Each structure stands twice: as structure tokens, then as C-alpha cells.
């Protein structure tokens, strides 16, 4: 599907408002108790090699049926998975072990099953993606929170200085990808390109200005990846931890999107999720999509969203009503991992998959962003 016309955007906004009025009592952000994820100790490691190639399809990942047969991870397993590595812009690296407080294992894994029929997912049938061509829309909230990662992925701005993306955009499970050594993030800005050599300040010169969105790039100061993503830490749940946080060298002025704890699929308005990304088949264009979720496991969402490489790392969001208010608010409740091959009863099948932000993951990401637990007690 081509560029999204202004009239369609207005129509979607009106329909969204009507739906909001009808569902305001049912669909509300409910504050959940968040566990504490605290550092036990941090040690310095040798510098990474930065030799890995960026990959956008993972093979042999444990699927829904496979995960249903796995025992729940123990507290020590989860502490191992949520421990993390940090890589700094000078190439140095540390490893941090974590421990939990106020953690309820049942809450973390309490997914209500709602199985739907499955089908192949990537781009199938009629392409349902929308290109956000209007320069005003693409540089305004919520689309302005979507950023481009220099390794070829997408990310989402979750604070003035932090971008959430997929771990596989940074690390292949064994080593950091080549581009991470000089990692950058591109943010769309409106810029003027003058035509001709008209007298400075003249009205004619101002009228001839061609204002177009273009990327403004900023360096990444620090990168953090959970060890649950690393091969050898776990053979079965790597994709459950396909997320990473990038700290930017310069704070950004535009509005960011907050993270939140995902409710069950039954609590999603219309059962739908939304995300925007920089798909490879539409260079330099922002592509928006929304779709129904077909299934979920404790850590993953399986859905029908049309996508192409480049959209990996997009922030998956929903819109719910704020408690006690008429205002509705968008929050990031997942990270789009991409088109993945998963093992289902010994057979490889393809899915489009997103990582759920669970209470533990919320606590960890929030701690990475704020550096303390005081701002991370309610998700």
C-alpha cells in the first residue's frame, strides 16, 4: 500500500476517537507492581571483536508449542537471563549480574491463552503497510519517536537520551555486529534546501525553500544487551530477550514514548498492536502498520503485521485510557523482533514476532534508563 493520504489519517483519528468513547471503561492502563532489578556486581571484560554480520532472520527458535512444554525458569535462571553487558563508545565492555526484589514469578508468566488460527507472516496477500509521506505527520508524535539505527534496524525513543531496539541489531548471539563500534541513531528532522542563489532573506528565496524530512545522526554513548540473548546462556529462550537499549550522546528535544507493561491480548483494544519502522523495501520512508495479535506466549507476541527487514527493533505500542482521566495514552509494550523461523513440533515455520515487555523486562529497561529504581515502581 502506498503513501497514507491525509483524509485517511483524519478518518483513522475520528474512528479512533469514537472507539475510545465506547471503550473507555474497559480499556484502561492499570498500574502494576513492578519488581526491583538491582545490580549485584559489575566486572570489566575484554573488548569485543565487533566481527558479527547483522542478521534479520533467526533459525531454530523455540516456538509457542515448544515453549509450552518448557518448565518455568527458576529465579536463578531469570537472574542469569536479565544480567547484561554494557558496551561503551570507546569500545570497552562490562558485565553486570543482577538480583530481584519484590518479584512474583507467577505474575511474570501469567499469560491467558487465546489461541487463534495461524498463517504465514511477513508480507502476504495485499500489503497492508502505510507509508507516512506527509512531512508534518512524519516529524510529529507518535511517528517522530521512531528512529533509524545505523546497523540497518529501527528503534523507538523512550527518553530524551535512550532508544529501545532489537538485540539482534546489535549482537548476533556470539559477538557484536561490525557497525556497533561506531553506532549511530538517525532522527527525522525537517530541513530546508535552498534552490539557486537568491538574495538572503528575500521572500522569493523563502518560497523556493524545499523543506524535506532528513536524518540527523547522533552517536551512541552506551549499549546494553541482556545476557538471555547470548548463545550458551540459554538454548531455548534467546528470542524472548531480543531487545537492547542505546544511550545517545546528545539528548533529543522531541517527545518520546513511555514504556509500559503489556496486558494480555484480550485487553488490547480491538486485539491490535501498532508500530512504525524503516523497512528496507521503502528506502528513507517511514512505514506504519497495525494488525491483530494471533497468539502469545509468556514473552512473545505472534502476529500478522506485514513487515520487511529494517523494521526490526520497532517499538510496538497500544493506546489505553489513563486511570481516572478521559485522556488516552500510547505506551510501548513490545519490541518488534521481525520475521523469524521457529521450531513447532520439530518443523520450521515462519512468524512475525514481537518481544513482550513483562514486569521484569520493564524493571530492567527502566533501571537502564533512569539508573535507579525510584522511578520504576509502577508500570
Automatic annotation (TrEMBL):
Signal peptide: 1-20
Residue ranges occupied by any Peptidase S1 domain in the UniProt entry: 131-369
An example Gene Ontology CC term for this record: extracellular region
Keyword entries, A-Z: Glycoprotein, Secreted, Serine protease homolog, Signal
Bilayer-crossing regions: none
Pfam families: Trypsin (PF00089)
GO biological process: proteolysis
Keyword Signal assigned: yes
MF terms in GO: serine-type endopeptidase activity
Subcellular location: Secreted
Keyword Protein transport applies: no
PANTHER family linked: INACTIVE SERINE PROTEASE 35, SERINE PROTEASE
Similarity comment text for this entry: Belongs to the peptidase S1 family.
Name of protein: Inactive serine protease 35
Species of the source: Lepisosteus oculatus
Taxon lineage: Eukaryota, Metazoa, Chordata, Craniata, Vertebrata
